Amino acid sequence: MNLTDLTWRAVAALPPDTPVVIPVAALEQHGHHLPVFTDSILLGEIIRRVEPRFASRILFAPLMWLGNSDHHLDFPGTLSASPRVYLDLLNGLAENFLQHGFRRIVFLNGHGGNDVPGRQAVFELRQRHRTRADLLLLFATYWSLGDRAFSGFIQDEMGHACEWETSMMLRIDPSLVGDITAAEPVEPGRPFLPAARGWITKDRSQPGHIGHPQAASAEKGETLLSRFADDTSALLERVTSWDGSSWNG
Length: 249
Prior knowledge:
By secondary structure, the chain is of the alpha/beta class. It has one domain: 3-Layer(aba) Sandwich (Rossmann fold), CATH 3.40.50. It contains seven helices and four strands, in the order αβαβαβαβααα. The protein has a four-stranded parallel beta sheet. α2 crosses α5. The two termini are 26 Å apart.
């Protein structure tokens, strides 16, 4: 069920153990061939496929399109909440739902730049509510939930405006995808080894994409979207059946 469709009295009547899913994505550059809203479009499609599977068992908040995208600000069209502002935004959203009595909150993420602050946000939330044993506070990125081995793909992990994202966009709306034949491969490199380097996107890619968008296809996109929707559903089933004690992967 979608929060936007309910009255406040209907929300108040929900059991406190109803999981709340807060989708978080971004609006930022995606190379020469994908629109700036790509991350939000992709996560929105995942939610569209998952939400009907849970009927009245899970409450879905509207997608938060403003993400932590400061590293893309050299590219026009990018809109970003700076890291501390983004941390406060996520903390505030969760605190709103806690105030309304909900106890199981899942941030479902669709942008790599949200991952570090998102994990920090749920860490901070747990410290503030350390005396409560009834809370489940999670941050999860949809493409990291399950087995990422896909046959017939060049890439074995998500990049940026890459084979994976471009394929999913071709499946959702090919009219939004530009000429991928002109996109030269940009290897991801190893920016986090042997020590994590502070970086901006232009340190890693001049055109703005990272990966192999020229290898994308709509068929690959359906493979990815189907798997990611199933992986997300599996996580949310675990959340609904949580026994109120440990949470171990």
